[in-house]
Design a protein that fits this description.
heterodimer, A: PmbA/TldD fold, six-stranded mixed beta sheet, B: alpha+beta, Double Stranded RNA Binding Domain, PmbA/TldD fold, 3 domains, nine-stranded mixed beta sheet, 9 helices, 40% strand, globular
């Protein structure tokens, strides 16, 4: 698929040398990583380039009417290394069980052109220069802010050639870039004598957004200043507005599980046609969403990406399957195979994990709530949550909640004083008849913002429980 | 894959070549192997650890640290790293000395588990997991249980141009059982988790009694009430106490945050920050604990560091650079997630030292509040001094007695307010250490232990 990434197709090379019988799949990455860590406005560490070339082999075996799988990953590209990895995968497959009769691997990859935008051209061509330029621009953007400066941070970029091959004849490959930004934005000093405040920025994207940087820094500085004068939130049930940046920490982990074949197999999923949200809630899972860190021309099994309507006007319409879980229900993959590295950076070392079904980019359909100001006006008396400490949602129960790191009280339909501390939480999905976040969505705004794995307008939920008050 | 000793010659040569062209050079090589079995009633998988090994080289170029890594040990791959870093050193306009002293430790540490996990093989791993699943499902109302049994055997070799050579071999074993109870479309679960440095002897805690008790708790959670909401007396169970220690005076005393001027604790060193019966410790030298290390990734042995002693903030966690800046010694807390990741000041095993109270006394003193049990996560706020702790369950405290079971909660509050509100810590008989993983920010995860005994304080809690 890509002509400008010579030698990209590790998976294709491994596939040619693989002496395996039966269905198999090779997923590979050729990655370069570069990081710049800073304290204040000074570079503290230059990390990289770190190169990592690796692949994962998965085999599928029919055992007693079930499908057994075995997986091993390696960085050893020699014939001996490939044999050893395949040997491991074959060996462990003997102990595997999965209730599928026959797995049908994709034979055709995505078309060579027309995929979603997942490569930052400048980053791909000149990673170190681009990161250093971005760092200079980042620090310069703070120059006109009195009493606010970066305390620390890092810019981590990963350039990856991903390739997939399988025994059905699939040969797919594509390049992708990922940029992770972390900045501690610290407000201090000033005449008011308040303690310092920090807004902690952590963002993952496909590109370093230089044109939008100055506006972002202005916003971060405002939040850091507001932290200093924030008060504890009140306690009680409130209208709560959640922007995309907060929903990104809640929806993928809960809906991505509840509406997947994994949950359906274990009888933990709602049924198709079941109402799980209010009529204002429509959610698609779009694997082709431009610049999303989870987008690509194909999923991690090589199935061409597409969009799936998961929830239409509050009702479950479609679910997420990879090839294995699709086979368990005699249905095809929905191009929802993802390899996740738990507790690590995205798009780095993903070849070390076998795939499973999950959400790509959850796109909440714009509603008739209008602008953010109009959503706030609709809330009347409530709370805008700008950042949670860690929502840490539970996939199994779909409960979520965390400390408000910075938010705003809404009074008389307008944003009022900043708030900080206390706990806000709830349950994303609940059994019929029980209250949940999605069933309590009153209004969805009109303009969509992309934040990591969620593209959404601001969402007004009424009510969510807030535990506040000074400790 | 051969073990690291088979590559030490090439690594030493590469280090020597780089040392001739940079003011200071060090490397960390890593290799891990192991296996994990995961199953529930629908799916069984055995997954070997990735065949992944490599080395990261770090130089001081006269003004800043620069590092590069290779996932291969052959001469051409190592040469590529050496040339890349030598180029950085040559381009550097400054020639200052590295901050802090280089370690000179030369030592090897090997762990000899009483029972090897490797000799168990996948069949025995799966058999053990199936047995545990059976115990869980024997409880009426528990239809599903997910069990994972895993082990790893990690080698780390550290060399520097000052002559240090540290080799450590660390086996770790861990299991987790998650019995799930369902009713009317609702799912609830509790979990049992145990792990440490060592081998199959750590699986002795995977007993029918412990699994059945956890499964019963899962079922009971279906009938749990909503947690209370607001400011109230709180008792933390030993695991939650450990998470409190970790998120408060663990992250808050990582001295790289001092250099960044990003710790609210920095100006408080030497001052009273809590009652005189409260002490918090980080200890990487506990023999079998999950977060223990023989030696950190700068060549300094793991050690015990008292952070809060009888209410006074007395110590911080240091690497060589921060130790030099604060005129003290490194504390053996420099850790890399793996050979592909940078080194930071990190915790090992962080805990609240036991006190002299009983749980019954603490409950009576709390009178009306909530007991928080089964820590699931926490997050720090190094500059703002807040913390967030989340738990799977708890019990109401009413009129000085434990009453209703309540479900998932989060605790929020200012660390210093929480510390100053601590009214008692339970005895050593309640001390427990739990395995976990810690990120620096949202990445660079490493194994850490945390623990303590029951602790009574006051905070905001709410449903989460």
């Amino acid at each position: 698929m890509t002509e400008d990434a010579p030698g990209a197709e590790i998976a294709h090379g491994v596939a040619e040398r693989l002496r395996a019988s039966g269905p198999w799949e090779v997923y590979a990455e050729r990655s370069r990583r570069f990081e710049l860590h800073f304290t204040g406005k000074e570079v503290e560490l230059v990390h990289g380039p770190v190169t990592l070339h690796g692949y994962g082999i998965r085999v599928f075996r029919n055992q007693g009417g079930q499908t057994a799988t075995g997986f091993q990953s390696s960085t050893d590209l020699s014939d001996e290394g490939i044999r050893a990895a395949l040997g491991d995968a074959e060996r462990v497959s003997r102990y595997s069980e999965f209730p599928a009769q026959k797995v049908e691997l994709p034979a055709n990859g995505p078309p060579a052109r027309g995929g979603p935008k997942v490569v930052d051209p400048a980053l791909w061509a000149r990673p170190r220069d681009t990161v250093e330029s971005y760092f200079s621009a980042l620090t310069a953007s703070f120059d006109h802010h009195r009493n606010v400066a970066p305390s620390f941070g890092s810019i981590r970029v990963t350039l990856t050639d991903t390739s997939v091959a399988n025994s059905a004849g699939l040969r797919a490959s594509y390049p992708q870039t990922t940029a992770e930004l972390e900045v501690g934005v610290k407000a201090s000093g000033g005449p008011e004598g308040a303690p310092p405040g920090e807004y902690w920025v952590t963002e993952t994207s496909r590109r370093l957004d230089l044109p939008g940087l100055a506006d972002s820094v202005d916003r971060w500085c405002r939040y850091a200043q507001d932290v200093r004068r924030a008060v504890a939130p009140p306690s009680g049930d409130f209208a709560v507005v959640l922007p995309a940046s907060v929903l990104a920490g809640i929806l993928p982990q809960t809906l991505g599980f509840k509406l997947s074949g994994v949950a359906r197999l274990r009888k933990m999923a709602p049924t198709l046609g079941q109402r799980i949200g209010s009529e204002t809630v429509t959610i698609r899972d779009d694997g082709r969403y431009d610049w999303s860190p989870f987008a690509g021309p194909c999923d991690d099994e090589g199935t061409p990406q597409r969009a799936r309507t998961l929830v239409a006007s509050g009702v479950v319409e479609e679910m997420l399957y990879d090839t294995l879980y699709g086979a368990a229900f005699d249905t095809r993959s929905t191009a929802s195979a993802f390899r996740a590295v738990v507790g690590g950076s995205s798009n780095w070392k993903r070849f070390t994990s076998p795939p499973g079904p999950g959400a790509s980019t959850l796109v909440v359909g714009p509603g008739d709530g209008g602008t953010e100001a109009e959503v706030i006006e609709a809330a009347g008396d409530g709370i805008w949550v700008q950042q949670l400490g860690w929502a840490n949602p539970s996939a199994l129960t779909s409960s979520f909640g965390g400390e408000i790191r910075i938010g705003y009280r809404i009074r008389n339909g307008k944003l009022a004083e900043p708030i900080r501390g206390g706990v806000v939480g709830g349950s994303v999905v609940a059994p019929p008849g029980s209250p949940s976040m999605l069933s309590s969505v009153e209004t969805v705004g009109g303009s969509v913002e992309l934040a990591e794995g969620v593209a959404s307008p601001a969402m007004l939920v009424r009510p969510l429980t807030v535990a506040g008050g000074a400790a | 894959m051969s073990d690291l000793s088979g590559h030490e010659g090439e690594l030493e040569k590469a280090l020597a070549r780089l040392a001739a062209r940079a003011p200071y050079t060090e490397l960390l090589a890593q290799r891990v192997h192991g296996e994990e079995a995961t199953l529930d009633s629908h799916e069984t998988t055995v997954t070997p650890q990735p065949r992944l090994q490599g080395a990261i080289f770090r130089i001081w170029d006269g003004r800043r640290w620069v590092e590069a890594a290779s996932s291969a040990f052959d001469a051409p791959s190592l040469s590529e790293v050496v040339e890349s870093l030598a180029g950085d050193a040559a381009r550097s306009p400054a020639h200052g000395p590295r901050p802090g002293q280089a370690a000179t430790t030369r030592r090897e540490w090997l762990t000899h588990p009483r029972k090897s996990m490797e000799s168990m093989g996948p069949e025995e791993l799966v058999s053990l997991a199936r047995t545990a699943r059976g115990w869980a499902r024997s409880v009426d109302g528990v239809h599903e249980a997910r069990v994972r049994v895993s082990w790893s055997d990690e080698e780390r070799l550290y060399l520097n141009s000052g002559g240090a050579r540290c080799y450590q071999r660390t086996p770790r074993t861990h299991f987790v059982v998650v019995p799930m109870a369902t009713e009317g479309g609702r799912v609830e679960f509790d979990f049992l988790s145990h792990g440490g440095r060592g081998g199959a002897e750590l699986l002795d805690d995977l007993t029918e009694e412990s699994v059945v008790a956890t499964a019963r708790s899962s079922k009971e959670l279906l009938a749990a009430k909503a947690p209370p909401s607001g400011v109230m007396p709180v008792i933390l169970d030993p695991g939650v106490s450990g998470t409190f220690a970790h998120e408060s005076f663990g992250h808050g005393t990582e001295a790289d945050q001092f250099l960044r001027d990003r710790s609210y604790l920095k100006p408080l060193l030497g001052q009273m920050v809590g009652p005189d019966f409260l002490s918090i410790v980080d200890d990487g030298s506990i023999p079998d604990a999950w977060g223990s290390i023989y030696c950190d990734d700068e060549g300094h042995p793991g050690q015990r560091t008292t952070l809060v002693e009888r209410g006074r903030f007395v110590g911080a966690l240091h690497d060589a650079e921060t130790a030099a800046a604060y005129h003290t010694a490194p504390t053996g807390n420099t850790r890399r997630s793996d050979f592909l990741s940078r080194a930071f000041v990190r915790m090992t095993n962080t805990y609240v030292e036991p006190g002299d109270r009983t749980l019954d006394e603490l409950v009576a003193e709390a009178r009306d509040g909530v007991l928080l049990e089964r820590a699931t996560s926490g997050i720090e706020d190094p500059l703002g001094g807040q913390m967030q702790l989340k738990v799977k369950k708890g019990h109401r405290i009413e009129n000085g007695r434990l009453t209703d079971l309540v479900s998932t909660m989060a605790l929020s509050g200012r660390v210093l307010d929480f510390m100053n509100s601590v009214r008692g810590v339970a005895k050593a008989s309640d001390l427990r250490m739990e395995p976990g993983y810690c990120g620096k920010g949202h990445s660079d995860y490493i194994p850490v232990g945390s623990g303590g005994a029951y602790l009574l304080s006051r905070a905001v809690v709410g449903p989460a």
